[in-house]
Amino acid sequence: MRIVFAGTPEFAAEALRALLAAGHEVALVLTQPDRPSGRGLALKPSPVKAVALAAGIEVFQPQTLKDPGAQARLREIGADLMVVAAYGLILPPPVLDTPRLGCINIHASLLPRWRGAAPIQRALLAGDNETGISIMQMEAGLDTGPVLLGESLLIAADETTGSLHDRLAALGGRLIVEALAALPLAAKAQPEQGVTYAAKIGKSEAAIDWSLPALEIERQVRAFNPAPGAVFTLDGAPVKVWRARAQDVSGAAPGTVLAADREGILVACGGGALLLLELQKAGGKRLGAAQFLAGTPVSVGAQLLPLSARD
Predict the structure, then answer these.
(1) Which helix (H) or strand (E) holds 125?
(2) Mean pLDDT, 10 residues at a time, the chain of 311 residues
(3) In this structure, how many other beta carbons lie within 10 angstroms of the beta carbon of residue 9?
(4) CATH code (residue 250)
(5) What is the residue-wise DSSP string for 274-290?
(6) 198, 219, 246 — which closes off a domain?
(7) Cα(162)–Cα(153) distance, rounded to whole angstroms?
(8) What is the pTM for the complete model shown?
(9) pLDDT digit string (tens) for 225-237?
(10) Which GO terms describe its molecular function (predicted)?
(11) What 3-state class would DSSP assign to 37?
(12) Residue 311 within any structural domain of the chain
């Protein structure tokens, strides 16, 4: 089977590796244009591009697939199927209709829950107990197509976006290989009930609001690890929280430091308290609470503030 693969981040790169390991013919790889990265802002190829170049596969990086020239290039390939995973560009109808068997997508949720751009983070923020991978036949709507194959996995109590991403990427790679081996598969229409949308994460969502319940803030910390990091203000400077644990204690105004020792920094919340276990000041390293306090003393009774709008 002659395949075009479209994807950009590491989640997609894992699927591309799985397809190549299974012996599939990938005739062309689509990925987003190289982006500036690092202090020098040098152009950096996407993880998918790196895998493709290492395998000697032609890489195509159009700014948009609405361009007639880009669409003509895809027609020239004569692909049987396009596999899409976190590509980041909209596939217009002419592209969806180009491969003989259409386009199928590897989506990191159990559709119809969490259609859209950030299904992993949204599942963690919502406190979902499980998520999974859906292999979906693509159509013009946003993740609305029928599901060909799916598998769930449980979300661990201490799961972060980083750890869940890696498990879902591995599952996606395995399922896309299984799906291609079993084609043609019966497509199952998504139910109309249970639809939720995983909007792109905004930077403002990273600011910790201590008036929220501790459990909700703990989910925020896990959902925004490794990026963008949940953040609050200490002595006028931003501090990111990378690990925290909700505690069933109370007794002070939200944002008040209840304890600060080797065990962590305990902060009162709108319900319960949050024990901060790993923190990072701007320009510094991630530190356990004991190390952080050694360089940045925090007094019991101090008030931790949300990140201000100008920050």
Answers:
(1) helix 119-125
(2) 96 98 97 83 91 97 96 96 96 96 98 97 98 97 96 97 98 98 94 96 94 97 97 93 94 94 96 97 95 95 74 39
(3) 18
(4) 3.10.25.10
(5) EEEEEEEETTS--EEHH
(6) 198
(7) 15
(8) 0.94
(9) 999 999 999 988 9
(10) methionyl-tRNA formyltransferase activity
(11) strand
(12) no
Query: Strand pairing partners for 243?
Result: 278
Contacts of 123 (CB under 8 A, 6+ apart): 109, 113, 114, 131, 155, 164, 198
- Based on the fold, state whether residues 37 and 60 are members of the same structural domain: yes
Distance (Å) of CA 22 to CA 1, 98, 174, 191, 192: 12, 24, 10, 32, 35
Cα 300 from Cα 183, distance rounded (Å): 62
Say which CATH number the domain at 166 has. Answer: 3.40.50.170
Q: Mark whether 244 and 276 lie in a shared domain.
A: yes
> Based on the domain organization, do 46 and 163 belong to the same domain?
yes
- The number of distinct structural domains making up the chain is 2
> What average pLDDT is seen over the chain?
95
Last residue of a domain, one of 198, 223, 242: 198
Amino acid at 293: L
User: For residues 211 and 274, what is the distance between their CA atoms, to the nearest angstrom?
Assistant: 11
* pLDDT for the residue 41: 74
Question: Is residue 111 part of an annotated ligand binding site?
Answer: yes
Confirm whether residue 146 is marked as ligand binding: no
Same domain, 155 and 293: no
Q: Known binder of ligand: residue 119?
A: no
* Claim to verify: residue 214 and residue 191 sit in the same structural domain: no
Structural domain containing residue 154? 2-198
